[in-house]
UniProtKB/TrEMBL annotation:
Designated name of the protein: DegV family protein
Tagged with keyword Iron: no
Gene source species: Candidatus Merdiplasma excrementigallinarum
Molecular functions per Gene Ontology: lipid binding
Superkingdom of source: Bacteria
Keyword entries, A-Z: Lipid-binding
């Protein structure tokens, strides 16, 4: 008799409450340390509080990974009851959470960690795939193996409206930030789906609405074999008009069965800053 499966993920998967509940996904939150206080991401601190701390006091938080002991305590509530657990982690190039999850899994058994090699709803796309496979009756070990094969098919990128938060967090130099702002450049940040690391792609120039439209067209033209099942539009806090313009541009380019709009967690938002938006999808 096959064991029942619990589907779980780091809070950085950014699915939003509706999808989380629909697919019965359990989250473990990352730590957000702001002004020497430890908070849990999207539990007792939210992106607007982070932006306020920066605007008012020039304070930015640091993020802290989930440690092995925390994972063990979290998973044990299910493994002790005879469940298998599939857990999708933030990309291993960005955090030690995956390595810590593996340590907990080795100690407990019946826990299957998956390095998403991604972030935000790039992880979310894999979570929804896992949900599909659970519904199809596949066993946990097989699902984890299948998800690992799919990481290279997830494509995640974002447009940054400002480099201020990247510079303040030490992820780009003051000179680079100044030069980009002076020239009105808005870089596309691309996720490497081999490990989850981030790099700079095309740099766009102009007003944000036009930049977002051109970005969407470029990304959808880049791949000849896009899976038209699901696409995420994920942002860090942006006016609704930009979201609608992006959605309309997507729909004019191609038809997706489902388009989801979600807001990024604190972990993602504190590095990117407000007005960041990306489209995330898979190829076949």
């Amino acid at each position: 008799m096959s064991r029942k499966i619990i589907l779980s993920a780091d809070s950085t998967c950014d699915l939003g409450k509706e999808l989380q509940e629909k697919h019965q996904v359990h989250y473990y939150p990352f730590h957000i340390v702001l002004e020497e206080k430890d908070y849990l991401d999207n539990v007792d601190i939210f992106p607007e509080q982070i932006y306020d701390a920066w605007r008012q006091r020039k304070q930015l938080p640091r993020t802290a990974a989930i440690n092995a002991a925390e994972y063990m305590e979290y998973f044990r509530q299910w493994t002790d009851e005879g469940y298998d657990v599939i857990h999708l982690c933030l990309g291993s190039a960005l955090s030690s959470s995956y390595q810590n999850c593996v340590l907990a899994a080795e100690e407990l058994g019946h826990v299957y960690p998956v390095d998403s090699c991604n972030l935000s709803t790039g992880i979310g796309l894999l979570v929804l795939k896992a949900s599909d496979l659970i519904q199809a009756g596949m066993e946990a070990e097989q699902i984890a193996a299948e998800l690992k094969k799919l990481t290279g098919k997830v494509h995640s990128s974002f447009i940054l409206d400002t480099l201020e938060f990247m510079r303040a967090g030490g992820r780009c130099s003051a000179v680079a930030a100044f030069g980009a702002n002076l020239l009105g450049l808005k870089p596309c940040i691309e996720v490497d789906n081999r490990d989850g690391s981030m790099g700079v792609g095309k740099k766009y120039r102009g007003k944000l609405d036009r930049v977002l439209e051109n970005y969407v067209k470029d990304r959808l033209d880049m791949y000849p074999d896009i899976d038209c099942g699901r696409l995420f539009i994920t942002h860090s806090g942006i006016d609704e008009e930009y979201i609608e313009r992006v959605k309309k541009t997507v729909q004019e380019k191609m038809t997706f069965r489902e388009i989801f709009i979600t807001r990024a967690s604190c972990t993602i938002s504190c590095h990117c800053g407000p007005n960041t938006l990306g489209i995330l999808f898979m190829t076949k």
